[in-house]
Design brief:
11% strand; alpha/beta; 184 residues; single chain; binds shikimate-3-phosphate; five-stranded parallel β-sheet
């Protein structure tokens, strides 16, 4: 794979859509490096996302997220998993639009998204509540607000409702091969 044809894939989508799990597997499969924006923010801050929200507030988190996005897009990461709210700021959307990457929206049924978030042991430490709503209701509300942004940015979409991360990666490999970026 030469640098010009090395694929770059940015994963977008709500909490529980599997961006991190799919991203890790996909990067391994493509033999490229993986970067998780939330992971980078936590590593740099030395505290969890929930602690950033609690102690510094969502506004500070969004600043950190924009900085992390800018750094990620300047890096040679082949697969980038974003946080569900990265699409909220227009400057972030502009950065995402201007990157050469395939931008893949991972979606799923809201009940399934909530089930996955609720079952994920990392949620308790690292996923702050974003509204005063209850779990599935919050997910439905955020989807309503954010879906137009996800759809505007996505070059491809995959419904993960009934698919494991490995199955999603298979589909992504077909899409990537179809775009002439790697051999299937
Ligand atoms: C957020 C999603 C989280 C994380 C933060 C805010 C959001 O990322 O960035 O808790 O606004 O939806 P995941 O989508 O990886 O859970």
């Amino acid at each position: 794979m030469n640098a010009q044809h090395q694929p770059r894939v940015i994963l977008l989508g709500p909490r529980g859509s599997g961006k991190t799990a799919v991203g890790e597997l996909l990067a391994r499969r493509l033999g490229v490096s993986f970067l998780d924006l939330d992971g980078e923010i936590e590593r740099k801050a030395g505290i969890s996302i929930a602690e950033i929200f609690d102690g510094l507030g969502e506004g500070t988190f969004r600043e950190m997220e924009s900085d992390a996005l800018r750094a990620a897009l300047r890096s040679d990461a082949g697969v980038i998993a974003t946080g569900g709210g990265v699409v909220l700021r227009e400057p972030n959307r502009e950065l995402l639009r201007s990157d050469r990457a395939m931008r893949v929206l991972l979606g799923a049924d809201p009940a399934i998204l909530w089930h996955r978030v609720d079952a994920d042991p990392r949620s308790r430490h690292s996923r702050p509540a974003l509204t005063r709503m209850s779990g599935e209701q919050e997910i439905r509300h955020l989807l309503e607000v954010r879906m137009p942004f996800y759809l505007e940015l996505a070059t491809h979409q995959i419904d993960t409702t009934a698919r494991s991360p490995a199955e999603v990666v298979e589909e992504l490999m077909h899409i990537i091969a179809h775009n002439g970026l790697v051999h299937a």
